[in-house]
C-alpha cells in the first residue's frame, strides 16, 4: 500500500464513528452518530460520498446484511474499519498529538 | 402502506451505479422516510425528493468526474491516435454532454440568464398545468369513473339544460332505460347538528340508496343505505363522513347504534364513509348523509324535482347512446305525465366533464396565456443562442475546417440547448414546489377538487415534455445556422460586422414577434384589470366600513316564532348597547352571502302555474337591519316594532323586484303571499309597505336578484345573521360580543367576520384570473424588454466599427442616438402593429369573463401600447447611449 496520506477531518470522524458503533454501523446509524457526537448537521451527500471514497481507498470495507422488511426489503450495508484504516487513524492521531503538544496554555478552554 | 415515491427511487437507481452502495442507500432512505412519514406524509414525501435530487446530482457529478479523469488520462497517453479510434461511438453523446457542460460553465452569466428565463417560463406552465391536472384531468376517485354520468332534466321553454329530477321520474328512468347499469339521485342540504357540544351547521347530502354502490364506495365502517331506508315510514338513519366520525365520536368503536341529532331529530349512524370520499358536485364537503325517505311525502312528489341524478353507463355504452335513449324516454314521459313532464327533455353529461364545467374554459385559457409567456421566453433564449453562435462562429468554423461534419455541429448545439432546457425544467419544478401553496390559496373556492392539486407523475411528465420541447425550439435554428458556417466567411465576419446580415434580420423578426406576443398578453391582462376596476366601482348597495357581522346557527327549528324573534331582538338590543357600537341589526343573511330563495303569488292575480311563480330572494329582518347596513329606503316606510306577529303582515321589496314584477305600477299597497317552504300550503298575506335600494347577493359583478324582506317578528328562521356598525376597528368588538352572547345562550354557534372581509371574499373569483394574467403579462413585458435590450446591445457592439467610422466622418452624438434608436423603435412598432391585430382576434375568448368592458376596449389597447412603448424605450436607452459614447479612435484602432 506504501505511503498513507493524512486523513481529512471529516474522514477521521467517519472512521471513528464506525469504530464506536461496532457491528451496528450502517449509513443511517453512522450519520446519526456523527450528528450526535459532533453536534453538527451531516448531510446525506457528504456522508455517503465519503463512505464510498474511504472504501475505495481500502480504509473501510462493507458488506450487505440480510434484507429487512422495515427497509422495503433492502439490505443494510454494514461498514467496518480495515487494518489499513486503523493504521491511518493512528498515524493521524500521532501527527495531531505531536502538533498539539505544548500548546495547552494557548488552546485550553478557559 | 407507506412507500417512498417510486420515481425518486428510480432516479437513485439510475445515478448510483455501484450495486452495494445503491442497496444500502435506498434502504437507509426508506428507513428514514418511514420514520418521517409517521408524523407527516407530505413532509416525508418532500424530504425524500429533496434528498433524491441532492444525492442524484452528487453521484451524477462524481461519475462524470471519474469518466473525465479516466478519458483525459487516456488521451494523454494515446493522443497520437486519431480521434475516431480513441472514442468508441457510444460515448460520443457523453462527450457532447461533457463538452457542452464545459462550454456552459465557461459562461456562467449566459447560462444563468438562459436557465432562469426557461425556468420561469416552464415553471409558470407547470404550475398552471398542475392546477389543470388536479381539477380537470385526474380521474375522479371512484370505481371505473369513465362510466359515470350526470343525467339532467331539461326544460325547453326556459332553456334550462341542467334541471333536477323528481324521484318518481328517476324511477321511470330506471325502469324504462337499458343504457344504465344503475341510476341514483342525491341533493345537497344543510342540517344543524345539536347535542354534541355547540350546535353546528353542516353541509349534508340526501341520497337514494343506490348512490354509494353506484359510485363503488365501500364504507369505512358499517353499511351504506339499503332499499328499506328509502321506504315510507323508515327509521331515521344517517351516514357520516370519516372526518365527522373522528370529530364527534373520538375514540369510540363503531357499534351501529350511535346516534346523531340533526335539526332536532335523532338519526342512527349506520355507516362511516371512507376517508377520501368526496363527491365534488355541490356536496364535496358534505359531512352527513341521510336517505331519501326523510320527508317522504314531498320527496316522492312528481311535482317537486330536486334530485341530481347520477348514472353508471352499462358496459360499452357511450354518453351519446345514453343521450339518444334518454330522449326517447323523455318523449314517453311527456305523453304519460303531461302535467309535469311536458316540454321536459333529458341531458346526459359525463361526470368528469360536469365537475370541471365552469372552470374548464378558464383553466385552458390560463394555460394558453402562460404558454405564450413560455414562447416569448423561448424566443429570447433563441436570440441569446444566436448571438452566442455568432460569437462562436470562429470556433465552429475551425471545428468544421478540422473535419467536424455538419451533423456533429448540429448535435453539439442541440445538446447544449437540451442541457439548458433540462436545467430550466429542474428550476421550474423547484419553483412549482415553492409556489404551489400560494397558487392554490389564490384559487376561488368555486373551482372543484382543489385538494387534489399537487405534483404527480403527470405534472412531472408535463414539465419534462415542455423542457424538451423548449430545448428543441430554442436550439434548432441556432444549430442549423451554426452548422452552415464556412470557414472563410466566419473568420472574416468575426473580424468585423455591420448590420444587415441575414442573421441580424432573423433575430429582428424574432424580437418583433416577441413584442407582438407580449402585446397580446398585455391586452388580455389589461382587460381583466379594467374589469376588476369596473367591479370595484360598483355600488354594493350597503356601506361596508366598520361593520362586524356574525352568523348564528341554532337547533331551534321547532321553536315558536315569537320566542325566536324575541331572542333575536334581544341580541340586537344588547349588542347595540355595547360601548362603541352605533347601531345593530339582524337578518337571515348578511349582504353578499346569498340567502333563502322564495316564490310569491300576487293577491290581485290568479294563482300562477307551477314553475311560473315569481322567484325572489327572501330575508327575515329586524327593524334596524336597513339602518345598520345603510341600505337606503327609497319609498314608503321602514319596519317598526309595531309590525308584530298579530299585526297585519308587511313586506319591503327592493328596487329590482319593484321594477321587475310591478313595471309601470306602484308596488306599495299591493298584497302578496310569499312561499319559502314549498310544503307551506297556505302562506300568509303581506302588504308591501316600502321599497329599498338593491344590495348585491353574491358578487358585485352580477345583477341583483329581486328581493323581499319580511319583519322577523312575523316570520323567523333557526338561522340569523347580525351586523353592528362600530366606531373604530370592528374586529376589536369580537371579544366583547362573544362574551355577551355566551351569557345569553349556550345553544348556538356564531361565525364572525367584517363586511369588508365579506366584500373581499366576494371578489376572489375575479381576482384569480386577473392576478394571474397580469402576472403573465408583466413577465411577458419584462422578457420582451430584455429581448429588445439584448438585440440592440448586441447590434451596437457589432456596429462599433461602423459607428466609429460615421463619427470620424462627422456624425454627431444626436445623429448616432437617432440611428440606433430608430432600429429599436422600428422593430417595436412593427411588432405592436401585428400584436394589435392578433389581440383584437384573440381577446374575444376573454369576453365571457369581462365585466363592463368590451374585448376591444380602446382605452385598454391604447394604455398597454403606451406601456409597451415606454418599456421598449427604456430597453433601447442603454445600448443607444453606449453607441453615442463610441470613441472613433478606439473603434478604428481595432482594425
Give a structural overview.
The complex is a heterodimer of chains A (110) and B (895). Chain A has 110 residues and is α+β, with helices and mostly antiparallel strands. Chain A has a single domain (9-104), classed as Orthogonal Bundle (Arc Repressor Mutant, subunit A), CATH 1.10.10. In chain A, 55% of the residues lie in helices and 15% in strands. Chain A has helices at 9-21, 27-38, 44-56, 83-100, 104-107, and strands at residues 60-68, 74-81. Chain A has a two-stranded antiparallel ribbon with strand order 1-2. In chain A, α1 packs across α2 (27-38). The termini of chain A are far apart. The mean pLDDT of chain A is 86. By secondary structure, chain B is α+β, with helices and mostly antiparallel strands. Chain B has four domains: 1-77, no CATH class; 145-357, no CATH class; 502-531 and 764-893, no CATH class; 547-727, no CATH class. Helix content of chain B is 53%, strand content 16%. Chain B contains 28 helices and 22 strands. In chain B, α2 (19-39) packs antiparallel against α3, α13 packs antiparallel against α18 (502-536) and α18 (502-536) packs antiparallel against α24. Chain B is globular. At the A-B interface, α3, β1 and β2 of A face α2 and α3 of B.
Task: Give a summary of the structure in a few sentences.
Chain A has 110 residues and is α+β, with helices and mostly antiparallel strands. Chain A has helices at residues 9-21, 27-38, 44-56, 83-100, 104-107; strands spanning 60-68, 74-81.
What keyword list fits this structure?
heterodimer; A: 110 residues; alpha+beta; 2 strands; B: 6-stranded mixed beta barrel; 6-stranded mixed β-barrel; 28 helices; globular
